[in-house]
Amino acid sequence: MSISLSVLGSGSAGNCSLLILHRPDGARHILIDAGLSPQLTATRLGPLGVSLQQIGAILLTHVDYDHFHPGWIAAAESLKTTWHIHRRHLDRAVQAGLPIRSAEPFDDAPKLGAATIIDPVLLPHDQLGTTGFVIDHGGARLGYATDLGRVPATFFQRFINLSALAIESNYDRRMQMNSDRPAALKRRIMGGLGHLSNEQALDAVLRLAEHSDLRHIALLHLSRHCNDPRIVQRLYARRAPHLLDRLTISNQHQPTLLLHISRARGRPTSAAQPQRQWSFQEVLPQ
Ligand SMILES: [Zn+2]
């Protein structure tokens, strides 16, 4: 039992990742977010030997346009894909055009088969928040968090014992400050309900790595205008050289390699369901 992950594309022009959940009797294919058009998603799945028809489920982190492309409205009618979405985002998804009968809203844990436990973690982002996921597939554990304005304490309580982490690393603070973006936009991005800077993301990675044997770290959602992968590389070389060899920096234009995520040594084959230790109020604005 293991997980393969490829970030098919990530950035403000669209986010989508493929997960392959390997099982003794075959594999299950799911997407996290659907921010690329169905056509582009199919094009990027092709070299991995995966077709759109094989996608059995889509997990949405939230329903901003870069995570739910309107092209999926028609595709959702014809594809037999279940859309898993936190109940908090359901109205927004239906307003955006997702057919209600395709949606399977969840409160606690989306159901993806007995071998897979998904722990959804609400994180601060705009008014409705975003959903991070800890995906435990037979003890192989992937944490996935994008579009979070800051890293709340609950993140470290729930993102534990991971074999791999995908986390956004949106902007370089200096580039953001020096950009010609309107002040209100800068405040939205940097004010705790927008996105994580490279430094904030690395702080989270380093703290999380104390309790996880991270084999892969995939960085998501780099800003086209206010970030540069070379800056990120230099940051890790300076502050976390021991993590450089497991770093994958995703981009908008091409998929990452398929990352193989297996159970960390010494871990049980399946994690117990985590305790609820959080509330919306804790992570979202009042
Ligand atoms: Zn986004």
Descriptive account of the structure:
The chain has nine helices and 13 strands. With 286 residues, the protein is α/β, with parallel strands linked by helices. The protein has one domain: Ribonuclease Z/Hydroxyacylglutathione hydrolase-like (Metallo-beta-lactamase, Chain A), CATH 3.60.15. A seven-stranded mixed sheet has the order 6-5-4-3-2-1-13. A six-stranded mixed sheet has the order 7-8-9-10-11-12. The termini are far apart. The C terminus is likely disordered. Zinc ion binds next to loops.
Q: Tell me, what is the CATH class?
A: Alpha Beta
- Total domains, how many? 1
Q: Major sheet: order of its strands?
A: 6-5-4-3-2-1-13
Number of strands: 13
CATH superfamily: Ribonuclease Z/Hydroxyacylglutathione hydrolase-like
Report the end-to-end length measured between terminal Cα atoms: 41 Å
The dominant shape is globular
